[in-house]
Amino acid sequence: MKLLEFEAKEIFRAHGIPIPNGVVINSPDELRDTLDGFTDDVVVKSQVDVGGRGKAGGIIITKKADAVIAAEHLFSFPIKGLIPKAILVEEKLSIDHEYYVSITIDRSTREPVILFAETGGVDIEETAKTNPHALRRGGFSPLLTEVPGYVMREILGTAPKELGPVINNLYKAFCASDALLAEINPLVTTPRGVFAADAKLIVDDNALGRQGITANRDLTPREREAEENGFSYVELDGSIGVIGNGAGLTMSTLDLIKHYNGKAANFLDVGGGAGRERVMKAVRLVAGMPEVKVIVVNLLGGITRCDEVAKGIIDAGVEQRVITRLAGTNEEEGKALLAKNGYQMLDTMEDVVRQAVKEAAA
Ligand code: GDP
Ligand code: MN
Fold first, then answer.
1. Strand 135-139 vs strand 97-106: parallel, antiparallel, or unpaired?
2. Which of 183, 308, 331, 359 is catalytic?
3. Pick the CATH number of 97-207 from 3.30.470.20, 3.30.420.40, 3.40.50.300, 3.20.20.150
4. Does the predicted TM-score (pTM) go above 0.90?
5. What pLDDT shows up at residue 360?
């Protein structure tokens, strides 16, 4: 999960990285009360988690007197479609030079790796493309709790030595927050010392619980609902909704859809022992994606009873057509229930998929 700049900065600050003085506001009015704390010019920063925010107009450097107007503007100014819920207002730094530093894990060597550039700032992507050597790279053993001196010397080159402790602290913040990425761009030198002028932190989704994060904000509402219900759920870009039980059956249903030139909109694996209530939730969830025109339910009943599944489908009562294939325990009862309520149940996987592809194309 991506953290917002101000959240990442709080964590960086807790690990000893110098952060400019600032306040986080949720409305322009809140700024009126806190503006007295600033002595000079300020930087007003939209808190949205998109790259290239500065270039998109999300960062305004202004006189203190105009800060509220700038905040009012940013609160209603979408950046790549996103409106900020919060704005960070910081003292303007007087920047001598902008550097780039990030820490990630190299998946092939399974080591932390630091990327550093002496020319940081908003054009770093461009630099990486046109002059890849400008990005220096240093990996080291994940067993180390500090960046080893030889790595630090290699990546810093002739850059000021005072950046070293900041990078070392960034590595500590990276480890402590179970991060996949910790980035400071720009890391700046000023007459008052080194500061992280921007901050980015992506926490590993598998560590959210350990980090005390209860909800993954990066999930869509449907993905979150699926997670809460213990469904495996993925959204794609077709128009057929797919429900299966077990990863194998769900995947082969998807393969078959592709085989018959159809496109799945999403797929959901209800898992083992899907009862009436769970099936109802699954059908409603899959149907809730506006792109879904028809739904394929392909379930094997072992512990799962087909009559229960049928009741769940009927309970869901969704608008879209639901075409079902159920095999196993109480299959006949399930089939009779569905038929009585106007739902189609076919005998084989091929049949349901062919039918669904036909209806989705219609
Ligand atoms: P991003 O576009 O989302 O990466 O936003 P940043 O926070 O990195 O800011 C973009 C650029 O704004 C930086 O590279 C700086 O050049 C400039 N900037 C940000 N904060 C300050 C500041 O306090 N003082 C000055 N002079 N420039 C700043
Ligand atoms: Mn930046």
1. unpaired
2. 183
3. 3.30.470.20
4. no
5. 96
